[in-house]
Amino acid sequence: MNNESCVYCHPTDEIVLWQNPQCRAIFIADSPFPGWCRVVWHEHIAELSDLRDDQRNSIMAVVAQVEAQLRQLLTPAKINIASLGTALPHLHWHIIPRYLDDSHFPEPVWSAARRAPTTKTLPENFIELMQERLAITLGA
Q1: Which among 29, 62, 76, 129 is least buried, having the fewest CB atoms inside 10 angstroms?
Q2: Domains parsed from the chain with CATH numbers
């Protein structure tokens, strides 16, 4: 896949929670897993090892802060963090709150569903809260 057809290089309708010149944190609104976020490297690269040490440290700090804020706001049973990129080789992480009653728990979100989706709902102002918290912890 080249970067002309990459949805992360040419995003549409993203809900950006935070960004800097290197990366952005986005909210996945249409997910059956409430609170699912992604951290996406702006430049079209495929692997973590393509980054310099300081860049790796920087993006992992963003991933950790998104996770920390999701834990504080949503109190999930677990947070899954994944970087796959097989179908879309653009460096990104999934940060997925998991709940005991979610449709796949304790299996991965990419496995077959075991039950109906969770009844967990997000706070009405979830996006604004995440934006505020990430601006404070990561800088505006």
Answers
A1: 29
A2: 3-138 (3.30.428.10)
